Amino acid sequence: MSLFDRIFRPAGARIEPVGTEAAAQLAAIHASGFARPWSTLEFEHLLGERGVIGDGLYLGREKRPSGFALSRIVLDEAEILTIAIAREARGRGHSRPLLTQHLDGLSRKGVAKVHLEVEEGNTPALALYRRLGFKEVGRRAGYYLKADGTRAAALTMAVDL
After folding, report:
1. β-pair type (113-119, 151-160)
2. Is residue 68 a contact partner of residue 48, using CB atoms and an 8 Å limit?
3. Does residue 7 register a pLDDT over 60?
4. Active-site residue numbers?
5. What top-level class would CATH report for the domain 3-115?
6. Helical segments of the chain, H only
7. In percent, how much of the chain has pLDDT > 70?
8. What strand order describes the sheet that includes 135-145?
9. Is the pTM value of this prediction over 0.85?
10. How confident is the model at residue 60 (pLDDT cuts 50, 70, 90)?
């Protein structure tokens, strides 16, 4: 077990690559956290694309993921497309090790810079991204449609690996 695992990974959690076989579970997790959830078919298509990688968070002996991170790599840059934790697993310290290991995997694939977009009101996500070194590089007003029909700005962030 690595030092990272001993310090950051909650007991009983493992992070492993995830593929099209998990598309339905990823769609269900995504739907629990986003006003405009992606469908199983959208996840199948994304996970089948060259350059798209996904890491799943598995708790205990579960064979189905309880969270995931999904990115697209283009040359030496990547964009985090989405990251989500199942409602029942939130608030238990799983996001940081999941994203840290995901970023490490991107780095091992030659990625030098990672980009993402996040709703400006998503305080937990912003805190996580800032802890991992992401800096705000832009803002898109009215980008996200919220569940109540209002719109929220997207912050664009980036980190050098």
Report:
1. antiparallel
2. no
3. no
4. 117, 129
5. alpha beta
6. 3-8, 23-31, 40-48, 95-108, 123-131
7. 93
8. 13-17, 52-59, 67-74, 77-85, 113-119, 151-160, 135-145
9. yes
10. confident
